[in-house]
Specification:
Strand 6 and strand 7 form a beta hairpin. Strands 1-3-2-4-5 form a five-stranded mixed beta barrel. It is mainly beta.
Length: 128
């Protein structure tokens, strides 16, 4: 069985060197550009695929729906909502109003472990 199953992948340009493989991304300054999603304050559009190489202007595939590989910042339990943190890594969130990328499909036990994410960007519910 495959490690990932991207259903929708779109090619963007890497706005700067922050875009590396298996990281969360958000829209960049200009159309068709992406940067690493380093926090939960802006909409996350997807996960960079293995084509990301941190070279400004190079093309990168962004998984916008489906199952993608993602670097998780710390030990995390499957089933949780994932938002962005330092370097575009994923981090569990339960904070109302945070932008999230989707749902973690595998438990991680160490920092910077790659795990599967069901990419389904959303705003964490702001009501109880």
């Amino acid at each position: 069985m495959s490690d990932s199953n991207p259903l929708l992948v779109r090619t963007y340009a890497q706005e700067n060197t922050t875009v590396i493989k298996y990281r969360l991304v958000k829209h960049g300054t200009n159309d068709n550009q992406v940067v690493a999603a380093v926090d939960a304050t802006a909409p996350i559009i997807g996960v960079s695929d293995e084509s990301a190489d941190s070279t400004t202007g190079n093309p990168v595939g962004v998984v916008m729906a489906g199952i993608a590989k993602l670097v998780i910042a710390s030990a995390s339990t499957k089933g949780g909502a994932i938002t962005g943190t330092t370097g575009g890594k994923g981090l569990l969130t339960t904070t109302k109003g945070n932008y999230a990328a989707g749902w973690l499909l595998e438990t991680t036990t160490v920092s910077d472990q790659v795990a599967k994410l069901m990419v389904n960007p959303f705003l964490y519910p702001t009501i109880a």
